[in-house]
Amino acid sequence: MIPNKIRVWTASKGYVDIEEVNIGDKVISLNTKRNCTEYDTVSNIQTDYVHKGTIGFKKADLHFTLTPDHPLMIINPFTKEIIRKPIDDMFMRGTGKHARVVGNRLFEPYKRGQDTELIQWTARMAATASRQVSPPLYYDEIWNCLKDITGEEAQIWLQTFFHWNILKYRPFCMKTVLLQNKWVKEMVYHTAPRAGLGTYWGSLRNKSYHHKFIQALSITKSSDVVVGSKLQWRADRHEGIVYNISTQNGSFLARYLGGTFLLACNYT
Q1: 28 and 40 in contact (C-beta within 8 Å)?
Q2: Based on the number of CB atoms within 10 Å of its own CB, is 239 exposed (0-12), middle (13-18) or buried (19 or more)?
Q3: Same domain, 188 and 246
Q4: Which of 47, 67, 178, 204 has the fewest C-beta atoms lying within 10 Å of its C-beta?
Q5: Bond before 109 cis per omega within 30 degrees
Q6: Are residues 55 and 14 part of one domain?
Q7: Does residue 125 sit in the same domain as residue 66?
Q8: Predicted local confidence at residue 41, as pLDDT
Q9: Strands 71-75, 82-86: pairing kind
Q10: Taking the complete model, does pTM exceed 0.90, yes or no?
Q11: Contact 102/80 with Cβ under 8 angstroms?
Q12: In a domain, 260, yes or no
């Protein structure tokens, strides 16, 4: 089961708190046969009240807690076989190089339906507004381009966005930009998972600002995360409602504390 702090991506409303998800909402889930993410539909929602401990990961693009019986999607990097294993069976244990948490995947369909110049133009408009406090110019036109953007188009958009922005170094991340515009941040949150990338939002200490912490956004590689020494575990205690939703593929795209990731759930 999942605490109510998790946010779920839906096609019609973007990221919403898990308590706001309804049966029939379209989400993004992992198709294990094709090894990509695709649209899926919520068919059932299960709730319960608990007062118990939760455990999870603490990493740039993986930052969540779950009830101990909740499964993780684990992939063998050599055979590509994906299994589901309760997080309690892996907590604080070294599982070796043959167990990795499944990361984000490219979104399907791959077919491109928009002009490349339009995609690049919207990315440049978003980049120029990254450090403003007001919406970027042509805000509606940008979202019309991003609304149904495919995996290949998302890669073009992000490449242009980060090329035109102010890059900063951050360990374990591909690229980091200074970003304080909440409207642009939501655009990157929406686009990056479709390109198979995780996102992380947080503070960055910068010498140019007299060592003050400024807001920055990073994208991380889509490779699967090794379970064990490369992950930090975290534990918490939750009192309240917990949720579990059902999809056809048994997973959904979620966000918590600035990171985006795929979470296992019930099968339809």
Answers
A1: yes
A2: exposed
A3: no
A4: 47
A5: yes
A6: yes
A7: no
A8: 95
A9: antiparallel
A10: no
A11: no
A12: yes
For residue 164, tell me if it sits in a domain: yes
3-state secondary structure 57-74: EECCCCEEEECCCCEEEE
Give the CATH number of the domain where residue 240 resides.
2.170.16.10
Strand order of the β-sheet with 71-75 is 82-86, 71-75, 100-101, 225-226
| Residue tagged 């699967």 (tokens) | 224
Each residue of 40-89: pLDDT tens digit?
Answer: 999 999 999 989 899 988 876 778 889 999 999 988 888 888 899 999 98
